[in-house]
């Protein structure tokens, strides 16, 4: 039986391409570019699937989907949009649409989604009070993937693992899932595993009874109980000690926790969202992170792209941060296109957080109302120096760039910086000695066994540097 599709799209070129692709797959496609004509066609006949753009000639195609569902409650709707923001993705999800595709989209993926929609009915979605005040800035393809994954976990309590470099906005993802999801009326509790001493982290998570240990003069409620009915965000999960990992796994499996020094289990109802800037796979291999806990946490992975992989978002981010700076009492500034170009050329190892701090600094020190390229160049390390770790000034600039915007827990800065630069140093030694670990250890001035342990800890592959014969 021939499947029918109603395509509502006011861009004639896009409509023709989609219609041709679906026609080749055997679909009967009806085209229109207006909401009023769409409603006429729906009144005349039934369709298996509808595809609709958001901005149409006579109105908002997304806002009027409720009327479509009323007229054809069994028909799945796929939303297409060039308004590539998290707000649009959430509105599409809340409108009970079957799927959302930001433009430009992959035509094969769209055709596949049409087939899936034609084969089954869409599930009902709860309404959301989402507003235009979304927590993300950016319309790059990399961010579109993030937006789509966020909307897919709003209606469920699946555990989410957010990964990515420091400063990419992992906590923003957790906050968005909570604020836009079914648990938005409950508490959102965040805990940073890297910022808590290892001997106190179990008490912090699960609470403790009076007298459980020296200094426990009163009963304390842990983060799990504080988050009951809401969301618990476990940041820097890769820094959690082994014993706490075991107790966390037990809590995730059973939905129950026990306070330190307690005798009875306590049922808790929390959604878990975890985040890390560390590669957990090497940690599993070396035994410092539990594999079973990883699989419990990594039900829905959401990788956050570094800023260098979405440079097209830097202009919008910079202007957004200038507006924030003004609201916080800094002078009102605009930014020239050549200044945006100067910012876009950089790699931003501290990612969005680093960019924010730099923009605030530029807003403070700029001599004119408009920030120009000269202001940027005067107040940031030269690009050639930052990219040349072979000179003393280049290495200092690289370290300064790495430190920019980072929020490192007190007492850990030295080790964090050392870990960041130790791996490229060891790789350089191995490269210079063509993978010979004895000579590399001599070059570095360290014991061979120490080098071997560091190679293992840092997941370095020395064979990569061996001379090919």
Report on the architecture of this protein.
The strands form 5 sheets. This protein has a 5-stranded parallel β-sheet, sandwiched between helices. The protein has a 5-stranded parallel β-sheet with strand order 9-10-13-8-14. Strands 4-5 form a two-stranded antiparallel sheet. It has 4 domains: 4-134, Response regulator (Rossmann fold), CATH 3.40.50.2300; 151-303, P-loop containing nucleotide triphosphate hydrolases (Rossmann fold); 307-393, Orthogonal Bundle (Helicase, Ruva Protein, domain 3), CATH 1.10.8; 413-465, Homeodomain-like (Arc Repressor Mutant, subunit A), CATH 1.10.10.60. α14 packs parallel to α16. The chain is built from 21 helices and 16 strands. By secondary structure, the protein is α/β, with parallel strands linked by helices. Helix content is 45%, strand content 13%. β1, α1 (12-24) and β2 (28-32) form a beta-alpha-beta unit. The model is unreliable at 121-134 and 385-393 (pLDDT under 50).
């Amino acid at each position: 039986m021939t499947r029918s599709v109603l395509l509502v799209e006011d861009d004639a070129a896009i409509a023709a391409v989609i219609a041709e692709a679906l026609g080749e797959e055997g679909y009967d496609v009806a085209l229109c570019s207006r909401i009023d004509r769409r409603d006429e066609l729906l009144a005349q006949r039934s369709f298996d699937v509808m595809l609709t753009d958001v901005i149409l000639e006579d109105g908002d195609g997304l806002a009027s989907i409720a009327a479509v569902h009323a007229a054809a409650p069994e028909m799945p709707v796929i939303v297409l949009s060039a308004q590539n923001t998290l707000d649009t993705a959430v509105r599409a999800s809340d409108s009970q649409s079957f799927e959302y595709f930001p433009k430009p989209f992959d035509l094969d993926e769209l055709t596949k989604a049409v087939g899936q929609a034609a084969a089954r009915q869409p599930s009902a979605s709860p309404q959301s009070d989402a507003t235009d005040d979304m927590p993300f800035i950016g319309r790059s393809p990399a961010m579109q993937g993030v937006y789509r994954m966020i909307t897919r976990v709003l209606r469920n309590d699946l555990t989410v693992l957010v990964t990515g470099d420091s400063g990419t906005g992992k906590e923003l993802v957790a906050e968005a899932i909570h604020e836009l999801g079914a648990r938005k009326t409950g508490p959102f509790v965040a805990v940073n595993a890297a910022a808590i001493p290892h001997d106190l982290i179990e008490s912090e998570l699960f609470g403790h009874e009076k007298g459980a240990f020296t200094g426990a003069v009163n009963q304390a409620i842990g983060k799990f109980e504080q988050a009951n009915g809401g969301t618990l965000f476990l940041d820097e999960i890769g820094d959690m000690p082994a014993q706490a990992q075991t107790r966390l796994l037990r809590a995730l499996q059973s939905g129950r926790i026990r306070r330190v020094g307690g005798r009875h289990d306590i049922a808790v109802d929390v959604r878990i969202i975890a985040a890390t800037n560390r590669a957990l796979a090497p940690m599993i291999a070396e035994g410092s992170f539990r594999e079973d806990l990883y699989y419990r946490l990594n039900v829905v992975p959401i990788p956050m792209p570094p800023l260098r992989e979405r440079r097209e978002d830097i202009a919008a981010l910079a202007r957004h941060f200038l507006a924030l700076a003004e609201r916080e009492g800094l002078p009102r500034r605009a930014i020239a296109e050549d200044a945006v170009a100067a910012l876009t050329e950089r790699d931003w190892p501290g990612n969005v957080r680093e960019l924010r701090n730099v923009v605030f600094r530029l807003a403070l020190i700029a001599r004119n109302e408009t920030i120009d390229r000269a202001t940027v160049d005067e107040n940031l390390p030269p690009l050639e120096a930052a990219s040349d770790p072979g000179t003393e000034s280049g290495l200092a600039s690289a370290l300064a760039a790495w430190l920019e915007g980072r929020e490192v827990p007190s007492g850990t800065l030295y080790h964090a910086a050392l870990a960041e630069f130790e791996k490229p140093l060891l790789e350089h030694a191995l490269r210079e000695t063509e993978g010979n670990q004895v000579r590399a250890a001599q070059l570095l001035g360290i014991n061979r066994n120490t080098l071997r342990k560091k190679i293992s800890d840092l997941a370095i592959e020395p064979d990569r540097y061996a001379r090919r014969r």
